[in-house]
């Protein structure tokens, strides 16, 4: 019997834990603060930011949304980031992607204080993850949420083979690092990978993050594998679906995430979890 990994329930459980941690901080007079900077009027970005803001409010996190015009200059945007870097009430800073044309997104991310980099995209934090360094540092939220999902299953990852299809800095590369840090053998596939199906069929854990609708079919999956679908695609009827052909793969997989209701809810829940992490870490260091 295939296990359907319920991302909604796992996110609900994680949010409950986060809310309890926020309440504990409140007893000490500390409120976690999250600043979300959105530039321009991209409709999808507006929805994402609204969802994050709403969830933060429900959990007791102080959420500040800074809406900036698409005409803002690079220097002005960097100054906004600097202002939040210096604000002791803000523990996490997020710049919503994508930025309008003409703005250097990498430079903006690099401007965020690494100790407030709630998305885990700052080069210093990426390097810490890659090097598997000890101590506190934020990491990319979607892969971290996936690791939480894997931890909910009665399986041991050590020594098993993971295949990550996709090599983005948001999911693929940090995901591979986290799986490697969990003592798995990791392969990364991408658009130029030859004989993709041969590789994916060797995976005990298969993570797919490509944006290609139903790229992975039933015959591409090893029987009993854990399949994590990060895709958020639209089929020919406009229905939300993933990178994995769920109806086919569910017959063969040992566990699988649905779309919607899988990885998506865990990403926002992990963002909130990490906001509270940053707040607690800053309190430990006495930086606020």
Describe it.
- The chain contains 10 helices and 11 strands.
- Helix 1 runs parallel beside helix 10, helix 2 crosses helix 10 and helix 6 packs across helix 10.
- It has 288 residues and is an alpha/beta fold.
- Helices cover 41% and strands 15% of the residues.
- The strands form 3 sheets. The protein has a 6-stranded parallel β-sheet.
- Strand 9 and strand 10 form a beta hairpin.
- The protein starts with a strand and ends with a helix.
- The longest helix has 23 residues.
Structure summary:
The protein has ten helices and eleven strands.
Averaged pLDDT, please?
96
Q: Regions with pLDDT < 50 over 5+ consecutive residues?
A: none
What is the straight-line distance between the termini?
Answer: 50 Å
**Helix and strand pattern:** EHEHEHEHHHEHEHEEEEHEH
Strand content: 15-25%
Task: Please summarize the sheet with the most strands.
Answer: 6 strands, parallel
How many strand segments?
Answer: 11
Structural class: alpha/beta
Oligomer: single chain
How many helical stretches?
A: 10
Report the principal-axis shape.
Answer: globular
- Overall radius of gyration: 19 Å
Secondary structure: helix percent: 40-55%
**Major sheet strand order:** 1-11-8-7-5-6
Features:
single chain, 288 residues, alpha/beta, six-stranded parallel β-sheet, three-stranded parallel β-sheet, globular
Secondary structure elements and pairings:
Elements: E1 3-4, H1 7-26, E2 33-39, H2 43-59, E3 62-68, H3 74-85, E4 92-95, H4 105-111, H5 123-131, H6 141-151, E5 161-165, H7 172-181, E6 185-189, H8 196-200, E7 205-208, E8 226-229, E9 233-234, E10 240-241, H9 246-249, E11 255-256, H10 263-285
Parallel strand pairs: 1-11, 2-3, 2-4, 5-6, 5-7, 7-8, 8-11
Antiparallel strand pairs: 9-10
